[in-house]
């Protein structure tokens, strides 16, 4: 089916017949249909433009999400490395503490507390990243829901068919 533009509707001329339909009524109806098509064409262009913007934003959000995932993974690896290093260092400190005086034992406990604080800080950091990713996912879901609602608004133009049917039955 070929597309009809508002200009096609405005410029269409019907052949005249004796006792035919009212030309003024036909012209006014064509003008109304032309305006409707023009409005729908404009609205479609606006929606397509908005869709391109949303898709671009969605792509950016996906890139950010991937960056956050990579960062979270790096943080988890660093946390594991720190834990491994902390365990090794703690074993060394314990060994030195057994061989040394009370002062070295106190120093080892103090260092162990700092490492645990660093681990807790990394856990908090990881939790914050997780919450940011969840918020990002919720935002993307919200954008997709808005997009779906917009799609539902853009159902086929079945009301034009109903107008045509009313026009045919009125003859």
Structure description:
The chain has helices at residues 6-11, 23-99, 102-153, 158-169. It has 171 residues and is an all-alpha fold. The protein is rod-shaped. The two termini are 26 Å apart. The relative contact order is 0.08. The model has no long low-confidence stretch (mean pLDDT 84).
Number of separate helices: 4
Give the oligomer, counting copies of the same chain as homo and different chains as hetero: single chain
Shape: rod-shaped
Helix content: over 70%
Number of strands: 0
Secondary-structure element string: HHHH
Could you give a short account of the major beta sheet? none
Q: Report the β-strand fraction as a percent range.
A: under 5%
What separation lies between the terminal Cα atoms?
26 Å
Low-confidence segments: none
Q: What Rg do the Cα atoms give? A: 35 Å
What class, by secondary structure content?
A: mainly alpha
Mean pLDDT: 84
Concise synopsis of the structure shown:
The protein has 171 residues and is mostly helical. It has helices spanning 6-11, 23-99, 102-153, 158-169. 86% of the residues lie in helices and 0% in strands.
């Amino acid at each position: 089916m070929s597309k009809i533009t508002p200009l096609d509707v405005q410029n269409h001329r019907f052949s005249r017949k004796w006792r035919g339909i009212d030309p003024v009524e036909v012209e006014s109806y064509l003008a109304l249909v032309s305006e409707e098509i023009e409005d729908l064409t404009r609205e479609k262009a606006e929606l397509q433009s908005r869709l391109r913007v949303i898709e671009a934003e969605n792509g950016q959000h996906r890139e950010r999400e991937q960056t956050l995932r990579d960062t979270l993974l790096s943080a988890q690896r660093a946390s594991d490395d720190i834990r491994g290093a902390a365990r090794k260092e703690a074993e060394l400190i314990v060994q030195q503490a057994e061989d040394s005086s009370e002062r070295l034992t106190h120093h080892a406990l103090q260092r162990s507390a700092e490492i645990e604080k660093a681990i807790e800080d990394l856990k908090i950091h990881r939790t914050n990243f997780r919450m940011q990713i969840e918020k990002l996912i919720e935002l993307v879901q919200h954008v997709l829901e808005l997009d779906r609602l917009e799609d539902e608004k853009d159902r086929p133009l079945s009301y034009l068919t109903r107008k045509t049917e009313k026009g045919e039955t009125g003859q």
